[in-house]
Write a structure and sequence with these properties.
The complex is a heterodimer of chains A (about 650) and B (about 650). Chain A is built from 25 helices and 4 strands. Chain A is mainly alpha-helical and about 650 residues long. By secondary structure, chain B is α+β, with helices and mostly antiparallel strands. In chain B, strands 1, 2, 3, 27, 28, 29, 30, 31, 32 and 33 form a 10-stranded antiparallel beta sheet that branches. In chain B, strands 13-14-15-16-17-18 form a 6-stranded antiparallel beta sheet, with no helix packed on it. A 5-stranded mixed beta sheet of chain B has the order 9-10-20-21-22, covered by helices on one side. In chain B, helix 2 packs antiparallel against helix 5 and helix 5 packs antiparallel against helix 6. The longest helix of chain B is centred in the last third of the chain and has 40 residues. Chain B starts with a helix and ends in an 11-residue tail after the last helix. The chains are: A mainly alpha (about 650), B alpha+beta (about 650).
C-alpha cells in the first residue's frame, strides 16, 4: 500500500539532497535583495554585504534544520491510522499536582521514556494508550533513551560479551542511545550497569533514569488504566484530589462487609459504571485491534468522564485550547517563522533603504509578535486555571517561560522603537532576538535532552511571589535588550571592518553624536521612554525629527550607533533595577540582600560592562567602535550568566 | 616634587581613564572569584572571604576616591549634570552601606525539632572543634584558619599549613579553665594534623592486636559473596552490626549467672493475659507455639509478631496475630500491646484476603486477651528481621547465641570450643556463617577521600563530608583520631559519630566533633508547629511543594515579651525592628520532625537602598531628561546667536 504523502521527501534520510535543495532556496532568498539594491549607491555594497550574507545562510540553515527535525518519519499501520484519539486526548487528568489534558500527560510520559514527546510520528495519546493495552509490542522496541555516553559504551560491551546483541546492533544502540525494555532487562545487565556506575554520580543518574523509564513502561502495561487519575472529585467534595479507577475499586473492596459503608458517596454511580464498562470494552477492542470499536469506546469515555462532575471538570474550551497549543509546538515555531522572515526583510531594507520591503518586514514582524503574544496569553490562561487566580498564573516561572517573556519584551520595545524611528534597524535586532529565543526554547529539550518546563505544571513554592514577576520580568527584558544591542554591535563592526579602508572619517563622525548633529538635535537618541519623559516632565517642543537619508556608510554607521545607544541605555538601567529588586527579594526569601551567588555576581559583572561603556563613550574619540565591541562582550557575559551558570555547565555533561 | 605629585594626581584620581581601569579590575576580580572557584580554593577562601579580601577593598577605595575627585573637579553642578551627580553620590552611598553590611553581617542556621526551644544558632562561616567529656560536658575551640578546599596531611607533605595558621596546640576551655584541669590537672592539647574536604572515615579490623572479639566469615558461593566482619567485646561502638539481613550484637558477662537469665528471658518476651468465663491464665508465649487453654475447649496459636505495625493514628505499635480455635469455630485475632479492643478476622469468606475478612466487632465476646511485651535485654528486633544476641563469658571459650525473630520461636545455640557456625538470614534465604572467638583483633580508622566523580555539589556545599585528623596530646602520650563534621553539634538529639579518645590513666572518654561555631540568638525560638502545604493532588513526597511553614514563638528573655509569627517561603520573620531575620531554610523530608531556620542580620540595608534609589533616579535623569534640556539650550543658543550678530553657535561645547 502506497500511502506516501507530500513532503515525505524529508522522511527518508537523504541529507545530501535536502541540504542541496536548502542551499538553492537560500541562494534564491539571498539573491533577492540584489535586485533591489541596484538602486543604491555603489559604495554601500561590498564586503559588508557578504559578512551579513554569511549570517543569513547560517541562520537559514539552522532554521530549516529545525523544520526537517520537526517532521519526523511516520510508519504505516492500518490500526494505528484508523484509531482516532482526537476526542480522548482532550480528557482531563491529574498528574504531578496539575490538572492537564491527556495529550499533555502523554507527551510528558513519552518524554520521560524516549526523550521525545512522540513516537513514530503518532499522537502521544495513541502511543501511551497502546503501551497500556498492548505492552507486548513495546518490549522489544528500542525506545528507552540513555542519556550518558559512557553508560552506552559500557552497555554495548556488556551486551556483546553476553551475546545478547550483535556488534552492529550494539553500535547502533550507542549512536541512537535507544534500548528496548527486554534488552535492558536481560539477566545481569542491570546489575552490571549498577556496578559500573557505582563510582560516578552522573552515570548513576543516567542509569537511574533508564530504570525509571523502564518502570513507567512496565507500569503502563501492568497498571493499565487503573492508575490514571481521571476521575474528578465527587459531588460535595471540596478537596482538589482526583482519583483513579483503581483507587475507587479498592475503596469498594475495603468497604466490603462493613455495615453502612458508602465508599463511593457523592459519585455519579451510573456514569462511573458506564466508564468502567467502556474501559473494559476498550481494552478488549484494543487487543483485537478493532479500530471501529476502539473509536466508539474512546468517544464514550471522552463524553462521559466530564459528566462525572461537570462543575469541577475543566471546560471543553480550555482542554481544546491546550491540545491545539501543544500541537502547534506551544506557538514557538510559528512565531519563529514569522520573526525570521521579518529579520531577513528588515536587514535588507536597512541596507537597501527600500521602504516597501520595510513595510513587509513590519507586517511579518507584527504577525510574529501577535503569535508570540497569543502564545503567552494562552499559557497564562492555562496556568492560571491551576491556581484559581490570574495572578499566580503569570507565565514567567521557569526557563521556558522566562525566555518566552524576555523575547516578548525585547520585541515589544523593538516594535515601539521601530514604529517611531522607521529605520529597519531596531526591527532587525528585535526580530532576530525573537526568532532566536523561540527556536531555542523549542529545540533545547530535543538537542540537550533537558526539560526546561515547556509543559504546564507546578513550580516550587519559593517562586510563588510577586517579586518573581517584578524581578524576572525586568531581568529578562534587559537580557532581550542586551541581545538587541549585541546584534547592533555586530552589525556596526561588520560594516566598519569591511569598509574600513574606504572610510575617510574620524571615529567621532561614525558615532551617535555625528548622527545627532547631522540630524540637528538628537533624533536618534530619542527613545520611547524619552517621549514619555517629554510628555510628563518637560514641555513638548517641536520634535526635531528629520529623516536621515541612507546614502553613505558613514551615516549608516552613525545611525546604527545611535540605535545601539538607545537600546543600551534601556538595558543598562533596567538590568540595574532588576539586580536591586532581586536583592530585595533575596533579602525576603534568603535573609540576605547580597551573597555573591554566581548569578548575582555575574549580573553585576554584566552591569559593570555597560557601566564601562557609558564612561568609555565620554572619553574616547572612537565611541562607536568601543561601544560595538563592548556590547558584544556584554552579551556574552550576560549569556554566561543566564545560561552558563545554571544550564551550560550542567548540560555539558549530559550527552544527548 | 610638587610637579610630580600634580602629574600623578592628574593621571590617577582626576582621570576618568583611571576610574575605568578600576571598574575593569573590579569586574575581573569578582568574575574570577565567582566564575573560577579554583582560584578561591587555591587561596583557601570561601566566597564571602574572597570578596572581603584586601585587593577588592583597595580597588573599591581607589574607585570611590577617583569618583569623588572627578565628580567634584570635572563635572559642573549645572542642570544637565544633576543626573550624573545623583548617580555618583548614590554609588558612594551604596558602597558605604555595603561596607557596613559586610563588616557586621552574620549568616547562620538552626535546626529546631517540633515543640522544642532553641537559644543558639550556628554560624555558616566559622567552624569549631567540639569536645565532649564522658558524654556530658561540652567545650569547644574555634578553628578560624581551617582550610576548606584542599587536602592537607603529612602524606601530602603540606601539614605545616596547620602550624602556620594557628591550628596546633589548641587548648579547649571549659567554664574559663583549660579542659585538662577539669580532668585532674593533666596538660591536654589538641593539634590539627590533617584536613580532608570530602572524605569518609573507614573502619579497619586486623588480626594483629590484643582485643577480644568475634570474627564472622560469611560465604555464599552461589551469590559470589565471601566476606568477613568483626565485633569487639570491649568497644561499645563496635559491638553490634548487621550481617546479611540479621542484627548481631555481643554482650559480655563477668559471671555465668547473668548469662542464664538472659537466655531465659528470651522465652518471656510476649505475655498473654487470657480470660474466659471461669478461666484466667497468664501465658508466656513464643511465635509458632500452640497453647491449649485448660479444659475450656479453646486453643491459641501465636502466629506472628509485628514490632512496628502502623496504627490508624500514625503511631507504630507492637501487634501480635493469634489463631484461635474454639468450640464455636476458628478465627484470627490481632491484639495491640496495651489496648483492649481486638480485631478479629473471619476465615474462609469468599473474596477475602489471606488474613480472612476483617470484622468490625469481636467474633467471640467470651474470650479476652491482653498482651504485654517485656524485653529487658533488648533481644527482640525493632524491625521485621531476626536479631542475634551473642552472650560471652569473660575468659571462657564458649559462647551462646540467642536468636529472636518475629515469626519463629527463639533459638539458643551453644558454641563450645570458640569455633562454630550460626544460621542467619539473607533476605528470604538462610545462610551459614562461620563464627570464631578471637583475642588478637585490632581496630583502626582511616580517612578515605571520596573520588571526585562520587561527590555531589550539595555534599560539598554543606561541608558534611569534611574530616579533620586531630592529635590529642597529654604529656608523652598522644593519639590521632579522625573527626567528622556534624551539623548543629551541640543541639540535643544530634548524634555524634567517631572521634572518640580514651585518655590513659583516667576513666575519661573524650569525643571530638567538627561543626559550625554556635552563637547565641537574641531571643529563644520555639517551633510550635511545622506545616507542609501541597498543591492539589500532591503529597509529602511530591517533587515540588507549595509552601513550608514554621510556626514560631519568639521569647525575648531580657524583657520577657514573646511574639508569635510564621516563617514561610518568601516571608521571613523580622525581629528587633528588622535587625534580625529568621527565615524558612530546610525541613525534615521524612516525617516533618524538625525545621531548619536561616538566621541573618542586615545592617546598613537602608543606606544601600537609598544609594540604589539615587542611582536609579539619576540614571533616568541623565538618559532621558538631560537630552531634552540640552536641546532646549541649543535652541536658545541658536536663537540668541541669530538675534545678536548672526554668528554660528558653538554647538559642540554643549555636548
Amino acid at each position: 500500500m502506497n500511502t506516501k504523502k507530500k513532503g515525505q521527501g524529508f522522511d527518508n534520510a537523504q541529507p545530501s539532497r535536502t541540504r542541496r535543495q536548502g542551499t538553492r532556496e537560500m541562494r534564491n532568498v539571498f539573491l533577492w535583495p540584489r535586485h533591489f539594491s541596484l538602486r543604491r549607491a555603489q559604495s554601500s555594497r561590498g564586503a559588508g554585504t557578504y559578512s551579513c550574507s554569511f549570517m543569513f545562510i547560517r541562520s537559514l540553515a539552522f532554521f530549516l534544520a529545525f523544520f526537517v527535525f520537526a517532521l519526523s518519519a511516520r510508519a504505516t499501520d492500518s490500526f494505528a491510522d484508523s484509531v482516532d484519539v482526537s476526542q480522548f486526548e482532550k480528557v482531563a487528568i491529574q498528574h504531578e499536582q496539575t490538572i492537564k489534558t491527556f495529550d499533555t500527560f502523554s507527551r510528558q510520559v513519552l518524554e520521560a521514556i524516549t526523550g521525545r514527546g512522540s513516537l513514530d510520528g503518532r499522537p502521544a495519546t495513541f502511543t501511551v494508550l497502546d503501551m497500556a493495552f498492548d505492552p507486548q509490542a513495546y518490549l522489544d522496541k528500542p525506545i528507552i533513551k540513555i542519556k550518558n555516553l559512557p553508560v552506552r559504551l559500557e552497555l554495548r560491551d556488556d551486551l556483546v560479551r553476553m551475546n545478547a546483541m550483535s556488534q552492529t546492533d550494539a553500535d547502533a544502540m550507542v549512536r541512537s542511545g535507544m534500548i528496548s525494555l527486554n534488552t535492558w532487562k536481560q539477566p545481569g545487565v542491570v546489575d552490571a550497569m549498577r556496578q559500573f556506575v557505582a563510582s560516578d554520580n552522573r552515570r548513576a543518574q543516567a542509569v537511574a533514569e533508564v530504570e525509571t523509564a523502564g518502570r513507567s513502561l512496565e507500569l503502563l502495561g501492568q497498571g493499565n488504566f487503573m492508575i490514571f487519575n481521571l476521575v474528578p472529585p465527587a459531588f460535595g467534595d471540596t478537596g482538589k484530589v482526583w482519583a483513579s479507577l483503581g483507587e475507587l475499586s479498592k475503596k469498594v473492596e475495603d468497604a466490603n462487609g462493613q455495615a453502612g459503608a458508602q465508599p463511593l458517596a457523592g459519585y455519579n454511580l451510573p456514569e462511573l459504571g458506564k466508564i468502567g464498562e467502556a474501559f473494559n470494552s476498550l481494552a478488549d477492542a484494543w487487543k483485537k485491534h478493532d479500530a471501529a470499536a476502539v473509536n466508539t469506546q474512546l468517544d464514550i469515555l471522552a463524553n462521559t468522564l466530564p459528566q462525572l462532575n461537570p462543575e469541577r471538570y475543566p471546560s471543553l474550551l480550555r482542554r481544546q485550547v491546550e491540545v491545539v497549543y501543544n500541537h502547534l509546538a506551544k506557538l514557538t515555531l510559528p512565531g519563529a517563522a514569522f520573526y525570521f522572515v521579518a529579520f531577513v526583510l528588515f536587514l535588507m531594507s536597512a541596507r537597501a533603504g527600500v521602504n516597501g520591503m520595510r513595510l513587509w518586514a513590519l507586517r511579518f514582524f507584527i504577525a510574529g509578535f501577535l503569535i508570540h503574544t497569543v502564545g503567552i496569553a494562552v499559557r497564562w490562561w492555562l496556568v492560571a486555571g491551576q491556581h484559581d487566580n490570574w495572578f499566580d498564573g503569570i507565565p514567567i516561572k521557569n526557563e521556558f517561560e522566562s525566555v518566552l517573556m524576555s523575547a516578548w519584551f525585547g520585541c515589544l520595545v523593538g516594535l515601539v522603537l521601530e514604529l517611531r524611528k522607521s529605520r529597519g534597524i531596531f526591527g532587525a535586532a528585535a526580530s532576530f532576538v525573537g526568532w532566536l529565543a523561540l527556536v531555542a526554547i523549542f529545540s533545547v529539550p530535543h538537542v540537550f535532552g533537558r526539560e526546561i518546563g515547556g509543559e504546564i505544571g507546578q513550580v516550587n513554592g519559593v517562586l510563588m511571589s510577586y517579586w518573581l514577576y517584578i524581578h524576572v520580568t525586568m531581568a529578562t527584558a534587559s537580557y532581550a535588550l542586551i541581545g538587541m544591542s549585541f546584534i547592533l554591535g555586530v552589525w556596526w563592526l561588520a560594516i566598519y571592518m569591511s569598509q574600513r579602508k574606504s572610510i575617510k572619517a574620524t571615529g567621532y563622525q561614525l558615532s551617535a553624536d555625528a548622527a545627532d548633529n547631522f540630524l540637528g538635535g538628537g533624533t536618534a537618541a530619542i527613545g520611547f521612554t524619552q517621549t514619555l519623559a517629554m510628555m510628563f516632565f518637560v514641555k513638548r517642543q517641536r520634535a526635531a525629527t528629520m529623516e536621515i537619508q541612507s546614502n553613505g556608510t558613514m551615516q549608516q554607521l552613525a545611525t546604527l550607533d545611535a540605535c545601539n545607544v538607545v537600546v543600551l541605555q534601556l538595558a543598562f538601567w533596567i538590568l540595574g533595577t532588576a539586580i536591586v529588586l532581586g536583592a530585595v527579594w533575596a533579602d525576603e526569601s534568603w535573609g540576605r540582600p547580597w551573597g555573591w551567588d554566581p548569578k548575582e555576581t555575574f549580573a553585576l559583572v554584566t552591569w559593570i560592562v555597560y557601566l564601562i561603556i557609558v564612561h568609555v563613550r565620554l572619553i574616547t574619540e572612537h565611541k562607536a567602535y568601543w561601544t560595538a565591541f563592548l556590547s558584544i562582550l556584554g552579551f556574552f557575559v550576560m549569556l554566561f550568566n543566564w545560561i552558563g551558570v545554571n544550564f551550560w555547565l550542567v548540560g555539558l555533561h549530559s550527552y544527548a | 616634587m610638587k610637579k610630580t605629585l600634580k602629574f600623578i594626581y592628574r593621571h590617577t584620581l582626576r582621570s576618568v581613564w583611571f576610574g575605568i581601569i578600576m571598574m575593569v579590575l573590579i569586574g575581573l576580580y569578582i568574575a574570577i572569584g565567582s566564575g573560577m572557584p579554583g582560584v578561591r580554593a587555591y587561596f583557601e577562601m570561601s566566597d564571602l572571604e574572597f570578596f572581603a579580601a584586601w585587593p577588592l577593598k583597595v580597588l573599591i577605595a581607589l574607585l570611590v576616591a577617583n569618583l569623588s575627585v572627578v565628580t567634584f573637579t570635572r563635572i559642573p553642578l549645572t542642570a544637565p549634570r544633576y543626573g550624573v551627580w545623583t548617580v555618583h553620590c548614590g554609588i558612594i552611598l551604596l558602597i558605604l552601606g555595603t561596607g557596613v553590611y559586610y563588616n557586621r553581617k552574620i549568616e547562620g542556621q538552626i535546626m529546631i525539632p517540633v515543640g522544642q526551644t532553641v537559644s543558639r544558632y550556628y554560624d555558616n562561616e566559622s567552624r569549631m572543634l567540639y569536645v565532649r567529656v564522658n558524654g556530658r560536658d561540652i567545650c569547644g575551640h574555634t578553628l578560624p584558619g581551617l582550610p576548606r578546599f584542599g587536602t592537607y596531611s603529612s602524606e601530602n607533605g603540606n601539614a605545616d599549613y596547620f602550624a602556620r595558621h594557628g591550628l596546633t596546640n589548641l587548648v579547649p576551655m571549659y567554664r574559663g579553665k583549660p579542659l585538662g584541669e577539669m580532668l585532674g590537672g593533666k596538660d591536654l592539647a589538641i593539634d590539627v594534623v590533617g584536613y580532608y574536604p570530602y572524605a569518609r572515615i573507614g573502619e579497619n579490623f586486623t588480626e594483629t592486636g590484643d582485643q577480644a572479639g568475634l570474627k564472622f566469615t560469611i560465604s555464599a558461593p552461589h551469590m559470589g559473596v565471601t566476606q568477613t566482619q568483626y565485633l569487639l567485646c570491649d568497644d561499645p561502638n563496635h559491638s553490634q552490626t548487621i550481617i546479611g539481613s540479621s542484627e548481631v550484637r555481643i554482650i559480655q558477662f563477668g559471671a555465668s549467672e547473668g548469662l542464664g537469665s538472659v537466655a531465659e528471658s528470651a522465652q518471656k518476651i510476649h505475655t498473654l493475659d487470657v480470660t474466659l468465663p471461669g478461666f484466667h491464665q497468664q501465658l508466656h508465649v513464643t511465635p509458632g507455639g500452640k497453647y491449649v487453654l485448660g479444659k475450656t475447649g479453646y486453643a491459641i496459636t501465636f502466629e506472628s509478631y509485628d514490632p512496628n505495625w502502623p496504627a490508624m493514628n500514625g503511631d507504630h505499635v507492637k501487634l501480635i496475630t493469634l489463631m484461635v480455635d474454639s468450640p464455636k469455630g476458628s478465627f484470627r485475632r490481632q491484639v495491640i500491646m496495651g489496648r483492649d479492643e481486638p480485631t478479629d478476622w473471619k476465615l474462609n469468606v469468599a473474596g477475602s484476603g489471606p488474613m480472612g475478612q476483617r470484622q468490625t466487632a469481636p467474633l467471640d465476646n467470651d474470650l479476652h486477651v491482653g498482651y504485654t511485651f517485656a524485653d529487658p535485654f533488648h533481644l527482640s528486633p525493632d524491625q521485621n528481621i531476626e536479631r542475634h544476641t551473642i552472650l560471652l563469658l569473660t575468659g571462657s571459650k564458649s559462647f551462646t547465641d540467642v536468636c529472636v525473630a518475629a515469626d519463629q520461636a527463639p533459638k539458643v545455640t551453644q558454641i563450645n570450643n570458640g569455633n562454630g557456625e550460626l544460621e542467619m538470614s539473607l533476605g528470604t534465604m538462610r545462610m551459614k556463617v562461620a563464627v570464631a572467638l578471637k583475642n588478637d583483633l585490632d581496630f583502626s580508622q582511616s580517612v578515605e577521600p571520596v573520588p571526585a566523580a562520587q561527590r555531589t555539589r550539595e555534599g560539598g556545599q554543606s561541608g558534611a563530608f569534611q574530616v579533620i585528623m586531630a592529635k590529642v596530646r597529654s604529656g608523652d602520650w598522644s593519639k590521632t583520631v579522625a573527626v567528622p563534621f556534624t551539623q548543629f553539634a551541640e543541639e540535643p538529639g544530634v548524634n555524634w559519630t567517631d572521634g572518640e579518645v580514651n585518655l590513659p590513666g583516667t576513666s575519661s572518654e573524650l569525643e571530638l566533633q567538627l561543626s559550625n561555631q554556635f552563637r547565641w540568638l537574641p531571643a529563644t525560638i520555639t517551633l510550635d508547629k511545622f506545616e507542609l502545604v501541597h498543591y492539589p493532588g500532591g503529597n509529602d513526597s511530591s517533587m515540588v511543594q507549595r509552601d513550608f511553614k514554621s510556626y514560631l514563638t519568639i521569647d525575648d528573655t531580657a524583657t520577657g515579651q514573646f511574639t508569635r509569627d510564621v516563617a514561610h517561603m518568601n516571608h521571613p520573620v523580622y525581629y528587633a525592628n528588622g535587625e534580625w531575620t529568621f527565615f524558612q531554610a530546610a525541613w525534615d523530608a521524612d516525617g516533618q520532625r524538625w525545621s531548619i531556620l536561616g538566621i541573618g542580620n542586615r545592617p546598613g540595608v537602608w543606606t544601600m537602598t537609598a544609594g540604589c534609589v539615587m542611582i536609579f533616579l539619576g540614571l533616568i535623569y541623565a538618559f532621558y531628561i538631560k537630552p531634552i534640556i540640552i536641546r532646549r539650550m541649543k535652541v536658545k543658543a541658536i536663537e540668541a546667536a541669530k538675534g545678536r550678530a548672526k554668528k554660528p553657535a558653538k554647538m559642540a561645547t554643549l555636548n
